[in-house]
Amino acid sequence: MLAPALPHLPGAGPGSPLNEMSLSLFLQKLSQRMGQKKKLAEAEQQQSPTDTAHKPSFKKPRLGPPLTLGSQRSIYFCQSPKDHSARLGSEFFDQPAVSLARALLGQVLVRQLGDGTELRGCIVETEAYLGPEDEAAHSRGGRQTPRNRSMFMKPGTLYVYLIYGMYFCMNVSSQGDGACVLLRALEPLGGLETMRQLRSTLRKGTISRALKDRELCSGPSKLCQALAIDKSFDQRDLAQDEAIWLEHGSLESSAPAVVTAARIGIGRAGEWAQKPLRFYIRGNPWVSVVDKGAEQNTQA
């Protein structure tokens, strides 16, 4: 259930735990900056009362194909309802891993930061891990450890683990002991500015080229960086938590087909490395890895 190496938090290196204190300090400073921007905007609004009627209402950024990201509505998904009544409950997660992996596609993951900022993204790629029988799962053979305990907890429990000593991956437990679904990629919908700051700060080589929007969440550890997800989210209940939850987001009628392909980065899992347990939205530019062969076998 490993993912390719991705950017790390400054001060962390291979084989050493991620400095979560640095992440906490960064988020605190980020919240202060966002608060200052908000106060300046409010002050400008008070100085220009005649413009009050023209104040734009909040809308989620609309993403489109490359080169126009953030300027158009996504052609892949409908916009998600903004009220919390759209939140998915425990019953949604209480289904087998394969079924849940497919059902998660198109749903909207919401992360609320300490200052109230909401980061939103549609799930566009997942991987199913079936439990004790699955040679690629952390729970293979039915073994339970402090690290994988959340895989054996009730459906909807988050399983967040650290790989290579510096990168986090986020899973959702499903029906069946030791079974879960890895979230591999999101299509960003809201809070892109904050996502960019988080990714630029936490990724390796911050002095290199600027990130493209389609790179913000196109991988399991990338999306954790973009949403400020760390080990502290392990064992949280996605149906009840106040800082992260899932909302209903329906696929558009013209949405591309779901591609079924082999999972990524599990080459040592024998025959399980080739089992079609990865699912993604065909043609979506935010998918982490495209499988042309699998797409040819997918009926539109």
UniProtKB/TrEMBL annotation:
A Gene Ontology biological process in which this protein takes part is: base-excision repair
Q: Does the keyword Lyase apply?
A: no
Regarding protein family, the annotation reads:
Belongs to the DNA glycosylase MPG family.
Which InterPro entries does the record associate with it? Formyl_transferase-like_C_sf, MPG, MPG_sf
Entry keyword DNA repair: yes
Which residues, by range, are in coiled-coil regions?
Answer: none
What HAMAP family does the record point to? 3MGH
Record's function text:
Hydrolysis of the deoxyribose N-glycosidic bond to excise 3-methyladenine, and 7-methylguanine from the damaged DNA polymer formed by alkylation lesions.
Catalytic function, reaction form: Hydrolysis of alkylated DNA, releasing 3-methyladenine, 3-methylguanine, 7-methylguanine and 7-methyladenine
SUPFAM superfamilies in the cross-refs: FMT C-terminal domain-like
Record-linked CDD domains: AAG
Q: Which gene encodes it?
A: MPG
Report keywords, A-Z: DNA damage, DNA repair, Hydrolase, Mitochondrion, Mitochondrion nucleoid
Assembly behavior: Binds MBD1. Binds SSBP1.
Name under which the protein is recorded? DNA-3-methyladenine glycosylase
Q: What is the annotated localization of this protein? A: Mitochondrion matrix, Mitochondrion nucleoid
Naming one, the record's GO cellular component terms include: mitochondrial nucleoid
Pfam annotation, one family: Pur_DNA_glyco
**What ranges does the record give for the region Disordered, renumbered to this chain?**
36-67
**E.C. code:** 3.2.2.21
Q: Which GO terms describe its molecular function?
A: alkylbase DNA N-glycosylase activity; DNA binding
Tell me what organism the protein belongs to. Answer: Cavia porcellus
